[in-house]
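Field reference: sequence -> structure
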Amino acid sequence: MDGLRELAASFVAPGPCGVAVRDRLKHLTPEDEGVLRAVGAHQGALASGDLKVRCADGLEHGADSWAARKRELTGVSSSRIAGAITKATHDQWALARRCQAAHIQNLAAGIETLRHRLSLPLGAPGTKRAAGGYRSKSEWFRKSRRLAALEDRHTAAVADWQAGRVRVVRGGKRLLNTRHHLTQAGLTEDRWRGRWEAERWFLAADGESGKRFGNETIRVTPDGEVSIKLPAPLAHLANARHGRYTLTARIAFAHRGAEWADRIEANRAVAYRIHLDTERGRWYLTASWQRPAIQTIPLETARARGMVGVDTNADHFAAYRLDRHGNPVGGPHRFFYDLSGSAGHRDAQIRHALTRLINWAGQVGVAAIGIEDLDFTAEKTREKHGGRKRFRQLISGMPTGKLKARLVSMAAEQGLSIVAVDPAYTSLWGAQHWQKPLTTPHRTMSRHDAAGIAIGRRALGHPVRRRTAPPPHDQSDRAGHRTAQAEPGNRRREGTRPPTTDRLPGEPPPNGKRKRGTSASNTVRDAPRTQQWVQDSLMHTG
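Structure field:
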């Protein structure tokens, strides 16, 4: 169609490649906590210094400078701790570069939008693809000043990118800014200081295959005993052989505990991280490891048993089951969640809603879930949506990236695949073709439910609309099959009837021409000439 963008092809999302489980370190003695704090502060200071050196190197960094940094850290810690610190530093610098590129792209999009709107006359109407002119001279003036500010920021950001300069805050920029707003955050200076120091600690170790229990620095035995290899300056705090400190706490992973135990008994790599929750005063240990890449099933296999189409909204998932021909089965299902409150509350709400959705999809017997491949990165700018503050808050509050990652990992555990589809026009076309026909006195269809059907049909490879155009020639189907719900020829309906001939079934027609046999008639006009009609004498009376 004219004016519509080309739709991207649907694809099966790749499965998860890693696992992380966490358990609490209970019943730690004051001596245990003191050792953990000392080790975290010492290694955190080393990590801060190494990050400073890496940022100073910029684009000139290479394998030689990486090796030099590791040798320098080895003397004040150990070779394994130095390797973990330098690797974490490298990952942090690379993440900062990706964020810097995204920031430059966002600034460029805002500048383009502002230039377009400033070039239009005041009050010029906009379109669906571009905003119109500004409403007043004062607004035009303010936006012209903002354009100049964004251009300055863009120039500085591009200069930093070309020079390889990044700005990273160990502990987080948000927590750093909270120091200036303690009253609004409900924190005292001592509490903020405790959180700041805990976030800057470094108590982590990478796994090593072939080593005892998969990790030499932080070792966890099958019975849950946790021991730490102390850095050289803190070796005097050891309470076990070879400069190790054994904690009094015991670990027992309730989630994936059997899988974790199988790995460490086979001496396969497991990475560990110890961190402190300062608000609760609790210590936690997180174990993580890589899993073999899960082979995604072919798209046709995922479509074989139908699909569950899911429309993602600000407060619920709207799901609808479809058979493999694209026909809606049953009624709509909605799985609600609340994205207000803290990050932990929002994450728990999303996990609970996804659990109910996946369990229902498993009960109805489908092999895949169709979901939109949403990404609001380019849609959150203030310049694009102007004064639509509530809309910007709405799309900014939807955790699309985390939602997709969590859905893929949770569905893989239940043997379900995720089919990602292009989100274009799903709500518009779903409401146009499916909302009204499926609304009954006993079933209420919303626009979101209809969008779920559109998403499911697109994941199945069917068009969104319910039926194709009627036959353009006459009442026969010489233009093709009439419906889009069933495969042509399944029930031998909607097609022309086979002709009646005077030859046997399977016999080729003479001279390649088909001959239609005569049919019996019920009218006098078509009676055969061999029949003699006799006049009844009783009908004629004189």
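Note: DSSP finds 15 helices and 13 strands in the chain.
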